Amino acid sequence: MVALQKKFSVVTIFPEMVKNYLGFSILKRALEKGRISVAVHNLRDFTTDTHKTVDDYPYGGGPGMVMKPEPFFRAVEAIWPERRSCRIIMLSPRGRVFTQNVASEIAEDDRETAFLCGRYEAIDERVREYLIDDEISIGDYILTGGELPALVIIDAVSRLLPGVLGDDQSSEDESFSKGLLDYPHFTRPEEFRNMRVPKILLSGNHEEIRKWRKGESLRATLQRRPELLSTYKLSDEEKSIFDKIKEELS
Ligand code: 4FN
Asked: How much distance in Å is there from the Cα of 109 to the middle of ligand 1?
């Protein structure tokens, strides 16, 4: 039997931060089953001075420290001497924004996926210019480092790989993987503090439930994230459900 493994690596000055997150739940299981592997490398192992220096003052002045280029170059050259076998991603607020489509693109890439994580104020520009294949941002906010973004991407990509999710947690069925927000979900009890579960969900009429959920997905998307609808291709059935929803709301 052949089970494919997706290889990730992370280069960071805080390897324990990354390893700890991977020790729980679905990613822990994926690692145990060998569906993914994550090699975490300490950037300080690739310094050459006795103090293991990874940062220095910015040329031109200004606040904060800049990560030196040498440790990143030495790490990449030592870990991936055969550069073509690896997709090196720099996590950075200047990168293209991470979406489900980017997650699929990485999941379908047969190469090992490596992440370079920054800390302090910035990474020396020569790393971006000469060392990386891809530059990705997880969104527009200020962070203290690239470790959480690397974990976000490992998480989103891993759950797309065959055998990582159980049969009852398929990655395809969820509305968002098709580009819409989710419909409302309910579980027992049927009545909780005077709040009832929508009657349709108790009816056992699977066709009506499917249509209700489609309508609720479209309603939530229209009200909360209308920009998602501009890239979503509505089927004929969805168009007619959507027209009714818009009429209700107007
Ligand atoms: N962030 C902004 C503008 C200028 C700087 C930052 C910022 C961590 C090393 C980068 C941030 C956000 C999403 C990596 C932010 C990401 C990072 C990310 C990141 C320390 C230098 C820094 C305009 C976005 C608010 C710090 C905007 N996805 N600098 O956060 O690494 O991957």
From this structure: 25
